[in-house]
Design brief:
The complex is a heterodimer of chains A (about 300) and B (about 325). Chain A is of the alpha/beta class and about 300 residues long. In chain A, about 45% of the residues lie in helices and about 20% in strands. Chain A has helices at about 40-50, 75-80, 95, 105-115, 120-135, 140, 150-165, 180-200, 210-215, 235-240, 245-250, 255-280, 290-300; strands spanning about 1-10, 20-25, 30-35, 60-65, 70, 85-90, 170-175, 200-205, 220-225, 225-235. In chain A, strand 9 (about 220-225) and strand 10 form a beta hairpin. The relative contact order of chain A is 0.14. Chain B is an all-alpha fold. Chain B has 2 domains: about 1-75, no CATH class; about 90-315, MetI-like (MetI-like fold, Orthogonal Bundle), CATH 1.10.3720.10. Chain B is about 80% helix and about 0% strand. Chain B contains 12 helices and no strands. Chain B has helices at about 1-30, 35-40, 45-55, 60-75, 85-120, 125-140, 145-155, 175-210, 210-220, 225-260, 265-275, 280-305. The longest helix of chain B has about 40 residues, at about 225-260. Chain B is flat and about 85 Å long. Classes of the chains: A alpha/beta (about 300), B mainly alpha (about 325). The interface of A and B includes residues 83, 89, 146 and 149 of A.
């Protein structure tokens, strides 16, 4: 349904291309993961799809086709028809992505206001329905609340509601869980899975967190320095990463063993420092104190 | 609306403190008003009698409270140099200055808000340079100088009004009086317009770069929608605060311009009363001007609480 062909994006104030020729396909009804470290070009890719590139400040070429319609070179007026209606976007930090002076419900309903001719009551009903769909408690009363009255998780749910209220065919999620704590993150992932399954919304999920991608996406593309270095089924890539960068990323995921190893190293380092400090404090005194002996012993245990 | 009541209460407390400080300061420095009124050759008995008449033999707090009450009853004592009650002296002048301040304020708002928004939309290239230049020019030229230019150009050459001859608001020539005030008001307004445009331009540009604008665009808003539905309201709070400050400063700025245009407002009276050591008048004017500033600030806060729900909780969460 979405096809990116040889996309290049070069910002005028940078030496290197932000996106250096990538091709990517999102199939109908799937969640594609896009991983990479910051600066790898994943967000620029998403912004190109969403038509949010500052066109005057960059050069771009290639094709982005959504159900056959060109997105990259389309006129602004045409793009505005796509925005919200066919493509919904959820950003990283819900607090700043919401207008602080507009009621939550009105923000959810704004897409309807722009793209449909529903009256206020219909818009409200639709917004409340979407807010219920993203499992916000008591959506009717949340409608009239302001963003600062909601928790971070609720704000992100509301942002998702505003992105799906008109049932777009594609949802772009740019690090939607990064600003949230781990339990809320897990809940949001479950919600996205449900929306994908029940509402048949295709998604592009951008993250630097491989664990999250592994939980959510059947297919994943790995980006580095503006290029896609590896692409395929998530599990296959996790088991047998081909590209050295992917291997590197996977090794960087903390596991129980690695966590224990890091902890041990940290403790040893601390003990060594304590010993050195104790020795310095005692100066030339030959007999080590009981305390420093103890720390040395502890440092020996791994 | 609990926070609004709280804000109003705070306003009253501030006003009480200001009035007390003003009264105490002048009570400390003023010397002997009876002597001032009667002159150096007055007999001790006449002085004593006068002090009693002025209530100076009463304790300080009693005098202060009586004076404070005077703001409601209109009895603020007697002017030393004009030998009439302070209230009858200042009331018509307040009317004139207030009228000029309001005209000036309307001019500022009517010009600087559209101009500021326009300057924000066209902040690049030649039009950006032009607006920056105009802003610099407007802020650099002091009102007394534009006042002299306008008096000469519009007054003496074009004969739209007669500088120095202010007919009074309640005379038969009230329209002429208003025209006179208008030219003075414009001179006060020019630097404030420049400042407001600059403030508004940077506020709107700052808001345009916020994340919620990107969200609004991603929903399919056009420029107009982004601006009218989101940016405008978010730019309003700093603007209201700034305009309240302007409202307060117009009255201060009127002191000089009233001199230039020969307008009998409180600015001129204040200058004359200070040089005459006419303390009852100075006291009353200082407090009235302070009230004006406090009132403008309170009004701005109340309006902002209506605009921004985050301010309704009395700061913080």
């Amino acid at each position: 349904m979405l096809e990116i062909r040889d996309l290049h994006v070069q910002f005028h104030n940078r030496d290197r291309e932000a996106v250096a020729g990538i091709s990517l396909t999102i199939r109908d009804g799937e969640i594609l993961g896009l991983v990479g470290e910051s600066g790898s070009g994943k967000t620029v890719t998403a912004m190109s799809i969403a038509g949010l590139l500052p066109r005057k400040q960059c050069d771009y070429q290639g094709d982005i086709l959504l159900d056959g319609d060109d997105l990259l070179h389309a006129q602004r007026a045409l793009l505005r028809q796509m925005h919200g209606k066919k493509i919904g976007v959820v950003f990283q930090d819900p607090m700043s992505a919401m207008d602080p002076l507009m009621k939550v419900g009105e923000q959810v309903a704004e897409v309807l206001r722009i793209h449909t001719d529903m009256d206020a009551a219909q818009r409200r009903a639709e917004a409340v329905r979407a807010m219920a769909l993203v499992e916000l408690q008591d959506p009717e009363s949340l409608y009239d609340k302001y963003p600062h009255e909601l928790s971070g998780g609720m704000q992100q749910r509301a942002m998702i509601a505003s992105a799906i209220v008109i049932r777009p065919s594609l949802l772009l999620l740019d690090e939607p869980t990064t600003a949230l704590d781990v339990t809320i993150q897990a809940q949001i992932l479950e919600l996205l899975k449900k929306l994908n399954r029940e509402e048949h919304i295709s998604m592009l999920f951008i993250s630097h967190n491989l664990n999250v991608v592994r939980k959510l996406c059947a297919r994943v593309a790995v980006m580095q320095r503006g290029l896609i270095v590896e692409e395929g089924e998530t599990e296959k890539i996790f088991r047998h990463p081909q590209h050295p960068y992917t291997k590197h990323l996977i090794e960087a995921i903390p596991t129980r063993e690695s966590a224990r190893r890091v902890k041990g190293e940290r403790r040893a380092k601390k003990a060594a420092e304590a010993t050195a400090a104790a020795k310095a404090a005692q100066g030339a005194a030959p007999s080590a104190s009981a305390a420093s002996a103890e720390t040395r012993e502890e440092g020996g245990i791994r | 609306m609990k926070s609004a009541a709280k804000r109003a209460g705070l306003c009253i407390v501030t006003m009480l403190i200001v009035s007390f400080l003003a009264y105490a300061a002048f009570a400390l420095i003023s010397g002997d008003p009876a002597q001032t009124l009667l002159g150096t050759d007055a007999t001790p008995e006449r002085l004593e009698q006068m002090r009693h008449q002025l209530g100076l033999d009463q304790p300080f707090m009693v005098r202060y409270l009586k004076w404070l009450l005077g703001f409601f009853t209109g009895d603020l004592g007697i002017s030393y140099s004009y030998r009439q009650t302070v209230w009858s002296l200042i009331a018509p002048k307040i009317e004139v200055t207030l009228c000029m301040a309001l005209i000036s304020f309307v001019v500022i708002v009517a010009i600087s808000i559209p101009a500021g928004i326009l300057a924000a939309q066209r902040s690049n290239g030649k039009s950006g340079l032009l607006s920056t230049g105009l802003i610099q020019l407007g802020m650099a030229v002091p009102p007394f100088f534009t006042g002299i230019l306008v008096s000469w150009g519009c007054g003496i050459v074009m004969k739209w009004f007669t500088p120095g001859d202010f007919p009074g608001l309640h005379s038969a020539k009230a329209a002429t009086a208003l025209r006179h005030l208008f030219f003075a008001a414009v001179c006060i307004a020019i630097p404030r317009i420049a400042m407001t445009v600059r403030m508004l331009r940077s506020t709107v540009i700052g808001e345009m770069n916020r994340s919620y604008v990107r969200t609004a665009i991603s929903r399919g808003n056009d420029r107009r929608g982004v601006f009218l539905r989101h940016v405008l309201k978010n730019s309003l709070v700093p603007t209201v605060t700034f305009l309240a400050q302007t409202m307060a400063e117009i009255v201060g700025g009127s002191i000089v311009v009233e001199q230039v245009f020969g307008i009998p407002g409180i600015g001129r009276l204040l200058v004359a009363s200070i040089s005459n050591r006419d303390y009852p008048v100075v006291q009353a004017l200082v407090v009235i001007m302070a009230f004006w500033v406090v009132l403008a600030g309170t009004a701005a806060d109340l309006i902002n609480q209506r605009i921004d729900p985050r301010l309704r909780l009395g700061g913080g969460e």
